[in-house]
Design brief:
The protein has 140 residues and is mostly helical. The chain contains 6 helices and 2 strands; from the N terminus they run αααββααα. The two termini are 32 Å apart.
Length: 140
Amino acid sequence: MTSNRFAVAVHILTLLETNKAARLTSDYIAGSVNTNPVVIRRIMGLLNKAGLVTTSAGVAGAVLNRAAAEITLLDIYNAVHNNGQDELFAIHEKPNPACSVGRNIQSSLEIAFNEAQKAMEDKLADITLAAITEDVASKI
């Protein structure tokens, strides 16, 4: 199953960028994302650990640590990526080693999947949070 942490993290950071004057609570953000505030706090913790936001214990809200134009979607993806657990494609485990395809498919798929993952990450590195924020603002 694919995680939506990345999309939620981009949503959170876009809210922070578009509401700089206010310190948004996890309840407010959860309302926008339509999820539980606990999910927001968990993802906010990952963003904080990655140095993208600053949160203060006992104080509502968070602030971006860098300008939105200096934060790429790759930065956000890496912050919530779960240490490689959420690869773009997963390879099935334990194919039949007695089968010539089963014995060799994993190494072939690994190469192709790694290339696809790299292409996606290269594209994410080209897109900034500012670009997402501007696109959202243009639709409001």
